[in-house]
Amino acid sequence: MLFKQQALLRQKLFVLGSLAIGSLLYLVARVGSLDRLQPLCPIDGRFGPRSQDEIPLRALQFKRGLLHEFRKGNATKEQIRLHNLVQQLPKAIIIGVRKGGTRALLEMLNLHPAVVKASQEIHFFDNDENYAKGIEWYRKKMPFSYPHQITIEKSPAYFITEEVPERIYKMNSSIKLLIIVREPTTRAISDYTQVLEGKERKNKTYYKFEKLAIDPNTCEVNTKYKAVRTSIYTKHLERWLKYFPIEQFHIVDGDRLIAEPLPELQLVEKFLNLPPRISQYNLYFNATRGFYCLRFNIVFNKCLAGSKGRIHPEVDTSVITKLRKFFHPFNQKFYQITGRTFNWP
Ligand code: A3P
């Protein structure tokens, strides 16, 4: 009798234990994917009729699974057909600015279930050899996506290359253009740091930043130095404005993206007419890296590579002051054209 009762109790405990473990596993999975499983359109219908903005649930589920595999080239033709996957030309391009935070911006936007990034810089519009291969070549470089999703690519050289605005205009005159900028002197030093690291890797010597940024004959800012020229944002933007109206550009504050990424990303979501899906859950500060990192779900998170967030060399304060004074009028013009003011000195 006692033995029978014990067996019954063991059986009950086993059932209860299984139920508890099952519920726990369900909760863990649910929390991890909460972000992905929110209703796709807000109740108040702010983003238009559901049919237009709807992103198929499978797109959300497969964002890091199936699609990821497909991008690595593991998809069979049958899988592509079955899942209705396509390689779409980009609806938005991050055209620059080099060292503005272009990689961070692309990776963070890729957190959005409706966005699929082209992982590599494609350099289609700035490289004559690539451009000569034609638009189909470019499209084939794009990742697989669902028709409801948008593809975004980034090639920072586009911003400063003469021929690019006209070439992009010929592909799609209503494309959305993203430009991420940082305080121009800091950006120039970041640019220098990247080149310096490349030289050091090859055991080559290089000049000090001060020597490159200041003309030794005139003691004025050296406008022939590429890192300086790239930071004259207004000059480059003016070339783009010959082809696209200012409404087609969105300026991202790269300094704010470092310190407080979410509000900057929310502005981009709005500009791209995407329902707001990137949340604080997707971004966490990593004290070791000193930067925000990305959380896709409970299992998958990542920080940017070590080449992003380098330690800059110390630069003579008089050179910094000179550069800031030099950039000041260009910055004022940039604020005026873009309608976005930054607290740059
Ligand atoms: P530094 O290396 O000078 O710090 P780009 O991707 O255009 O080359 O820009 C690189 C810059 O992105 C880095 O410049 C870094 O400051 C900035 N950045 C912005 N957000 C970042 C993040 N979450 N992780 C790493 N770097 C980030």
What layout of secondary structure does this protein have?
Elements: H1 2-37, H2 50-53, H3 57-62, H4 66-71, H5 77-82, E1 86-87, E2 92-96, H6 102-109, E3 115-117, H7 128-131, H8 135-140, E4 144-145, E5 150-154, H9 164-171, E6 176-181, H10 184-201, H11 209-213, H12 226-230, H13 233-240, E7 249-253, H14 254-259, H15 261-271, E8 283-286, E9 291-295, E10 301-302, H16 317-338
Parallel strand pairs: 2-5, 2-6, 3-5, 6-7
Antiparallel strand pairs: 1-4, 8-9, 9-10
Helix pairs in contact: 13-16
The site of adenosine-3'-5'-diphosphate has 18 residues, from α6, α10, α14 and β9.
Order of helices and strands: HHHHHEEHEHHEEHEHHHHEHHEEEH
CATH topology of the domain at 64-184 and 230-311: Rossmann fold
Question: In the CATH hierarchy, what is the class of the domain at 64-184 and 230-311?
Answer: Alpha Beta
Give the terminus-to-terminus CA distance: 87 Å
Low-confidence stretches: 24-62
What's the CATH H-level superfamily name of the domain at 64-184 and 230-311?
Answer: P-loop containing nucleotide triphosphate hydrolases
Bound molecules: adenosine-3'-5'-diphosphate
Shape: globular
| Strand order in the largest sheet | 3-5-2-6-7
- CATH architecture of the domain at 64-184 and 230-311, please? 3-Layer(aba) Sandwich
Helix content: 40-55%
Largest sheet: 5 strands, parallel
> Kindly state the mean pLDDT as a whole number?
85
**Secondary structure tally, helices:** 16
Compute the number of strand runs: 10
- β-sheet strand percentage: 5-15%
Would you tell me the structural class of the helices and strands? Answer: alpha/beta
